[in-house]
Design brief:
3-stranded antiparallel β-sheet; 5-stranded antiparallel β-sheet; about 50% helix
């Protein structure tokens, strides 16, 4: 009987120990659960804080990007305005350069013309000038000339070299509108013609009866023409041309309006 009581007490103590350990475990479990819940809340709060920070950071980045975009746009506008001003300045500079170039070209042209005029005047005062001193038609009858003589003179200050001369006649429909090819005969030059020296150069006129009638009736005009060439002291070849026609009304020669020139 005593033994039984002792075992029962032991058993009761054992059961009580087991009950005490279970309660402690439950308390620990509740603490752990609360701790986990608190940690979870903290983590959630941290996550929320991170999210808020991220949102704020994103907003900050967006505003910074907007400010940068605005600054870039402002800079681009300033650059565009600067380019417009530069383009305008460049255009004005080009216009000024063109104006200066045109002015320079005009000055150069004027200088060239002045130099040419000076050279011409210098040469004109020193070169040979060979031209017609006088012209005459001679008649053996009362109607048509039978010869013509041109007198050539050097009116310049220096000799004319390699002078060649030719003279001929023709019948033209209009003495002021005719064409003729002037050829020089293959003969020696008259040699240098000194200043103030002159000479006569004649041409014989031979017309048949029908030609004479045509001249008398003015259906044709007797034209005497000629040309000479020479070289002056500046090694320039010069030429002189003359052209006269016989006027039946006055029975003398008259000057044609063409082929009378000199250079």
């Amino acid at each position: 009987m005593a033994i039984w009581n002792r075992e029962r007490n032991l058993l009761g103590r054992s059961c009580c120990g087991i009950s005490l350990d279970y309660n402690a475990l439950m308390a620990d479990a509740a603490w752990y659960a609360n701790t986990v819940a608190v940690v979870a809340v903290c983590i959630s709060a941290g996550a929320l804080a991170v999210s808020i920070i991220s949102i704020l950071y994103s907003r900050g980045q967006t505003k910074a990007a907007e400010r940068q975009a605005a600054a870039s746009e402002h800079t681009a506008r300033l650059q565009a305005e600067a380019l417009k001003v530069q383009a305008k300045d460049t255009e004005q500079a080009l216009s000024l350069a063109k104006a200066n170039l045109g002015h320079s070209e005009k000055l150069a042209e004027a200088a060239q013309q002045s130099a040419t005029a000076t050279k011409y005047l210098a040469e004109a005062g020193q070169r040979a000038w060979v031209g017609v001193r006088k012209f005459a038609m001679h008649r053996q009858t009362q109607t048509i000339p039978t010869s013509a003589v041109v007198t050539i003179e050097n009116f310049g200050r220096t000799p004319a070299r390699n002078l060649r001369i030719t003279q001929d006649y023709l019948l033209a429909d209009d003495p002021n509108n005719y064409r003729v090819e002037i050829l020089f005969p293959d003969k020696a030059s008259k040699g240098p013609l000194a200043p103030s020296v002159f000479f006569d150069h004649p041409v014989l006129i031979r017309l048949d009866t029908d030609q004479i009638k045509a001249v008398v009736n003015r259906s044709k005009y007797l034209v005497v023409y000629g040309k000479l060439i020479y070289v002056d002291i500046f090694e320039q070849q010069r030429a002189t041309r003359w052209s006269f026609y016989y006027d039946v009304a006055v029975q003398d020669y008259a000057l044609c309006s063409i082929n009378n020139d000199a250079d």
